[in-house]
């Protein structure tokens, strides 16, 4: 479980944790803790990137199944060695990556709308 501090929400895009996505950085595939069109919190990161470092995400996919080649340029916002997480801000997203993430967000919204409202 990842400890998350309460802080003022300065994000432009709302983050979702479900569905989790996989992403490839270098030769390694990671899983998201949460993500949005603006950034990703990555689980299981054990590397040398530090805040301000630039990186490329070369493939994205759902938790299972095929990974799709993409071109995403990102910047490290936070690297937490204690919890093995990496927070990145996406700076440039190609059409393939945008289409995948947008489609997942639309599906998420459809599921949320279909749920019965309490009361």
The major beta sheet can be summarized as: 6 strands, antiparallel, barrel
Label the structural class. Answer: alpha+beta
Q: Please identify, by name, the CATH architecture.
A: Beta Barrel
Q: What number of structural domains do the residues give?
A: 1
Identify low-pLDDT runs. Answer: 1-9
Number of helices: 1
Order of helices and strands: EEEEEEH
Determine Rg (CA atoms, Å): 15 Å
Q: β content, as a range? A: 35-45%
Q: Compute the separation of the termini in Å.
A: 31 Å
Shape: globular
Physical arrangement of strands within the biggest beta sheet: 1-2-3-6-5-4
Helix residue percentage: 10-25%
Q: In the CATH hierarchy, what is the superfamily? A: predicted glycosyltransferase like domains
| CATH topology descriptor | Thrombin, subunit H
- Number-wise, the strands total 6
Report mean pLDDT, rounded to a whole number. Answer: 86
Report the CATH C-level class. Mainly Beta
Summarize the structure.
The chain has one helix at residues 95-114, and strands at residues 21-25, 28-35, 39-43, 54-62, 68-80, 85-93.
How would you portray this structure in words?
The protein has one helix spanning 95-114; strands at residues 21-25, 28-35, 39-43, 54-62, 68-80, 85-93. It is of the alpha+beta class and 119 residues long. A six-stranded antiparallel β-barrel has the order 1-2-3-6-5-4. The chain has one domain (21-114): predicted glycosyltransferase like domains (Thrombin, subunit H, Beta Barrel), CATH 2.40.10.220. It is built from one helix and six strands, in the order ββββββα.
